[in-house]
Amino acid sequence: MVVQLAVAIVLGAANLSEAEQLGLHHRDLFGPSASDSTTCRTLAGLDDTVLALVAQARRKVRRHVWSLLHLRPGGFPWLSVAGRRLKGWIVVDMNATIITAASKKERAAATFNGSFGFHPLGAWCANTSECLGMELREGKPGANAVADRLRVPAAALRQIPHSSQAKLLVRVDGAGAAHGLLERLTALNTKRRTVRFSVGWKITDEDEEAIAKLPEKAWETSLAQDGTLQEGCMSFLGLWQPLRTA
Predict the structure, then answer these.
(1) Core vs surface per residue 182-220: b (16+ CB within 10 A) or e
(2) What is the CB neighbour count within 10 angstroms for residue 17?
(3) Per-residue DSSP letter, 242
(4) Does 117 fall in a domain?
(5) 223 lies in which domain range?
(6) Residue 171: which pLDDT band, with cuts at 50, 70 and 90?
(7) Residue 172: what are its φ and ψ, rounded to 5°?
(8) Stretch (H or E) spanning 80
């Protein structure tokens, strides 16, 4: 059932009903398709042991696929940030996203932007567009939101092949602006592993007052993703530390 569901998601299924219909087309390959209600009950019954086995299988397959990516003519898909090719760097993007619900589904709640639904937090590998980790959450995350921010990067790290000796760049928006997360990312640095991070947050009135006190010489024109200048956009020199790509 898990294999059928994974195939259905790859083919575009957005809910269990669509997964059931797609499964009917694969009966010759996978056998009878599970109904949407059976799939729902099975997923609800997965315990930590089974989920750990699923994560282990994903990690094993990803290690094999990444080894093939390194062997292809173009090599592994290294990213370019601000015009610099970050060869050897694995870029992980963490972000929370709103998934609206049309009815009072289980754990659905009011969200921060006035909608109603869920607010999962995920981590993706920007090099390959793969989801490395995901924390399913209700619309308004509770007091353990910081714990969510710690579990997601930990799960993502376990999915990255040879992560103990990798060079990692973690990019997070306001969803990760927490001292606990930044301290954890800093602590991941070892003699063999390098971890850098970029975090955004909502600027407060106090922030604006402090920024206004910076001298003009402390600023320079910002760079776009492709390395070109963004006229009218400025960056503070003291907040940027170039990544070593060697």
Answers:
(1) bebbeebeeeeebbbbebeeeeeeeeeeeeeeeeeeeee
(2) 13
(3) P
(4) no
(5) 213-246
(6) very high
(7) -135, 140
(8) strand 80-81
